[in-house]
Amino acid sequence: MTVRNGDDVPHTLRVIVLQPVLEVTDPAGFTLWPVAGIEPYGLLPLSGALAPAEVGTAVMSIAAHNDVVPAADDHPPRPADPLGSFLHGLLTMDDLFASGGLRVTDTASGVTLLPGCCNGLEERRDWFDVLDGDGWVSFATTRSRSPNATATPSA
């Protein structure tokens, strides 16, 4: 089935949709800036249409996942103020971790593959290895909710 939007650009309803999603950190007790009331450890779809509180949730989650004391001596010490202390890892770490990944939805069948355990948005390029037949990516499906589902190239 094909429909047209207001600009008369054809759009098919049966597509594979890749959506970057971020795993939301528990915002309980977080008061540094406004955050959305999203379920902790749920997935926040990322897009240019996020509301300001959703952007705040995304930044809070990324900062929280990187709130570690750097091992290297070449990083500045953690500031004493609450905001500087919370953002310290986000602003000083070389390799940031953004828990989440790509959500894949087949709109024809309704099957959705969710990022598996321990996936991060920074690993999204691993998909190229899968497509080249030389890698793997783990998922959980909306039907099985199994964290062991993997996408592997067919022989």
Number of strands: 8
Helix percent reads 10-25%
Strand proportion, as a percent range, falls in 15-25%
Order of helices and strands: EEEEHHEEHEE
**What topology, given as strand order, has the largest sheet?**
4-3-5-6-7-8
What gross morphology would you assign? globular
**What is the rounded distance between the termini?**
32 Å
Average pLDDT metric:
78
Give the low-confidence spans. 1-6, 143-155
Radius of gyration: 19 Å
Q: Structural class of the secondary elements?
A: alpha+beta
Largest sheet: 6 strands, antiparallel
Number of domains: 1
What's the total helix number? 3
Characterize the structure shown.
By secondary structure, the chain is of the alpha+beta class. The chain has one domain. It is 20% helix and 23% strand. The chain contains 3 helices and 8 strands; from the N terminus they run E-E-E-E-H-H-E-E-H-E-E. Residues 1-6 and 143-155 have low confidence and may be disordered.
Furnish the topology, listing elements before pairings:
Blueprint: E1 2-4, E2 10-12, E3 16-23, E4 43-45, H1 52-65, H2 82-92, E5 100-106, E6 112-115, H3 126-131, E7 137-141, E8 149-151
Antiparallel strand pairs: 1-2, 3-4, 3-5, 5-6, 6-7, 7-8
Characterize this entry briefly:
With 155 residues, the chain is an alpha+beta fold. The chain has one domain. The strands form 2 sheets. The chain has a 6-stranded antiparallel sheet. Strands 1-2 form a two-stranded antiparallel sheet.
